[in-house]
Structures are given as structure tokens and as C-alpha cells.
Amino acid sequence: MRFFKFKNDKYNKMAEIPHQFKAETDGDTSKITIYGVIGSSWWDDSTSASDIERVLKDINSDTIHVHINSGGGDAFDGIAIYNQLKNHAAKVVIHVDGLAASAASIIAMAADELIMNTGSMLMIHEGSTFDWGTKTQFRKTLNALEGLDKSIAEVYMTRFKGECHEIDTMIVNETWFTADEAVEAGLADKVNKAEEESEEEEVSAEDFKNNVLARFKQKKADTEPNPMVASTNNNILERFKRPV
């Protein structure tokens, strides 16, 4: 028996992302929220490909916004969800709210527009599994894992700007991308950064230097005696001197 997943258990625990799955429609726009573990579960605490299939068949919106915050889970559920979103008639806009790691990063690749929110991250790595049996069985498992890694590399290559051997190495290395790095690599389209308003005008390096030097000059002028004042004081004192 084999159960394929990504090596993500420690990341699910690290992130401590509570399960949340819901779908809402408002006019021509729908919103799907996928938080927590990807895959099937006896305890209804994860989001499976069957869950996504169920909600997508009832969505006729022009645009679907998918919000993801997940450390990953079952590899093939992730691939199935990727294809379900990719094949839907609506425009799919995916927002990485916090983390899109492992199987969740595969889902993110289905976006027509992938937006990384401020501080979010994306992580890719090799698949993993557990198995028991003979050496022949383990060879079959190894072949299956190698095939899985090739499959997920093909998914990333639909967006990645580099070469296939580079994404293969990044998968083996377990690579984390910040929001900006994901955009630079082509894996995401843009970063949704909060607007920062500044009341201060941008000052060039030369203007900054001149402003500092002007302050120094003014300080020096304030501490030195005024020649005109000194001369006036001397004239007044001369009037009080007795003739010799």
C-alpha cells in the first residue's frame, strides 16, 4: 500500500493553519477559500479534490478568486485540484494569503493570475511516501516517486522562467520563495503590497548632503561673535573712557 504526499508534515505543524474550506458567489465573481491540509480525511479537517469538484460544478461565475494558506498534503489531490481549476471556464485568480507549500504550490500554478500577498511564501520540494513489502515493491515505489517528481516539475514549468534542470534541482533542494522571488522566477504574477503613503518627498543624495552642510554652517555662524555688534559695543565704550 502506498500513500503519496509531499514531505510537508513538519510544515503543517510549523504553520498551524486551521482547516477552512468554503465557497461563496456574489454576482459574476466567486470566492473559494482553501486553508489547511490538502487531501482526504476521515475527520473532515482537510480539503480534497472531491470537495473542489463539488463546488466548481455549481459555479458559473466569470471569475473565481481562490485564497490559499496551506502547508500542502496529498500530492495527487493537489494535482487533481490543479487540473480542475485549470479546466474551468472562469478566469481563476489565486491569492496566496500566507503559505503555498508542497501540494498547495501545485494548486497555485493553476492560476490565470497568481497574486502573492505581502509576506507570503511559496515552497516546492520532492514527493514522499511510505511502503512495505519486497525489494520489487520498493523498486516500484521508487519508480512511482520519480514519475511524480517529473509530473510536478512539468506543472511548475508552465510558469517557471528558467530551464527544466533548474526547477528539478530546486525541487530536490526544497526551495522557498518569498513573494518577490516567486514573481522574479515567473511562478507568480505580482505581489499585492500594501500602499505606503509618505509625506516626505524623496531627497537626492546631493540635496541631502547640501542640507547637512548648510546646517553645519548655520551652527558655526550662531556660535561666532557678530563683527558689527562687537564694533558697536567698542564705540559705546570709547565714549565712557576718560581723556588721558
Q: Please, could you describe this protein's structure?
A:
There is one protein chain. The chain has two domains: 5-192, 2-enoyl-CoA Hydratase, Chain A, domain 1; 205-240, no CATH class. It has nine helices and twelve strands. It has helices at residues 9-15, 49-56, 75-86, 103-108, 135-157, 164-173, 179-184, 205-223, 227-240; strands at residues 5-6, 20-26, 29-35, 37-38, 46-47, 63-70, 91-101, 113-117, 121-124, 127-128, 175-178, 190-192. The strands form three sheets. Strands 2, 3, 6, 7, 8, 9, 11 and 12 form an eight-stranded mixed beta sheet that branches. A hairpin with a 2-residue loop joins strand 2 and strand 3 (29-35). Helix 2 (49-56) runs parallel beside helix 3 (75-86) and helix 5 packs across helix 6 (164-173). The N and C termini lie far apart (123 Å). Mean pLDDT is 82; it is low at 1-9 and 196-200.
Q: In summary, what is this structure?
A:
This protein has 244 residues and is α/β, with parallel strands linked by helices. It is 43% helix and 23% strand.
